[in-house]
From TrEMBL:
GO terms for cellular component: membrane. SUPFAM superfamilies: Ferredoxin reductase-like, C-terminal NADP-linked domain (SSF52343), Riboflavin synthase domain-like (SSF63380). One of its GO terms (molecular function) is flavin adenine dinucleotide binding. The keyword Chloroplast does not apply. It comes from Streptomyces caeruleatus. This is Oxidoreductase. The chain crosses the membrane at residues 7-28, 34-54, 75-96, 116-138, 150-168, 180-200. InterPro entries: FAD-bd_8, FAD-bd_FR_type, Fe3_Rdtase_TM_dom, FNR_nucleotide-bd, MRET, OxRdtase_FAD/NAD-bd, Riboflavin_synthase-like_b-brl. It is a multi-pass membrane protein.
Amino acid sequence: MVARTGLYALLAANVAVVLYFFFAAGFASNTLIVLGRLTGLFGALLMAFQLLLVARLPWLDRRIGMDRLTSWHRWTGFSVLWALLAHAVFITFGYAESSSLDPVNQLIDLAETVEGVLRAVVALGIIIVIGVVSARFARRRLAYETWHFIHLYTYVAVVLAFTHQVAVGTSFTSSSVATAYWYGVWGVALASVFGGRLVLPLWRNWRHQLRVSAVVAESDNVVSVYVTGRDLDKLPARAGQFFLWRFLTKDRWWQANPFSLSAAPDGNQLRLTAKAAGAGSAGLRHLKVGTRVFAEGPYGAFTTMHRTRPEAVLIAGGVGVTPIRALLEELHGHAVVIYRVATDRDAVLYGELAELAHAKGAELHLVTGPPVPDQLAPAELTRLVPDITDRDVFLCGPPPMMNALIGSLREVGVPKQQVHFERFSLAG
């Protein structure tokens, strides 16, 4: 909550500063041009804020979670698109109103005669393309790798937009203080991305030298991969977190898959457990011992750091048991574990979970059966855990199950701040 409030406060403070510099720079006589300049400034500020959201800064990620940061980034991205479209329309029509040119020829004239405008047009075109491929109807039809490659052009658009602002931005050039402010905003945003997305992962992988130490089949379609390396006790990973894993073989090095730790980090090894849901996860069972690993992370706010109560309920669905099993290992205080699967044979890691629950004095309930009727409806939850409203609740499982459970917890009266979950599908 503190980190979230801090982000909102940071954005609000920067909006106030931008407005101050905007008014200090003076107004044009044309109202459309005034609106164009204002929407352009807000578009630039949102673009810088957007970079901060996806910089994967450890302090923010541990407190908010990559899934929420990514969701905010998505909506901020569409806000950038609309702000910059409005900027282009207002500016073009504003100058056309003062000249004898129609809007199309006015835009062409501005691009040909005013420094930086052509770069801005190209930047806007890139952002429009990225906006289109990020819309849900298009995103569902694109492979993640294709979408991600197109998304990388955002950085080209950022550079082009910044040089446009430097060249013709009235607020940017109105005073030395305004100039320093905008250089600071863009500097912090770009440095955050460079540090969080490039420098930190490279440094950690160089330091820890990760390799596959064992591959264990847990069932016909679930496999665990053990990873060792140097100084793993210095890696700031916690139970419940995940990494983006790249296994450096000739046919897999370019694939990054988000998998949770399925055991609490012990300073000697890391373990991930995955179900064969696609080509990437299905190929894990064929990894050879000694394969080099490049891991980005740890990521995620699904940890005991956010506990508000001394006792907890851990609810897992299917292979979502992996971070739940790791959390149980790290938790202190009484815990109730509910493991929801279709059939007994789908309960991977159940043996480990049972042993761990016995050792820690936790209650373990295996709930089996088809999705309908709901085996974890409000009445069933309160039967299994009568004091559930006095506990923290950690959830991990398929999206339909998670959505249903969040509704059930709300219905039985569990306070929102006591419900902890992370939608790992967004992490990739």
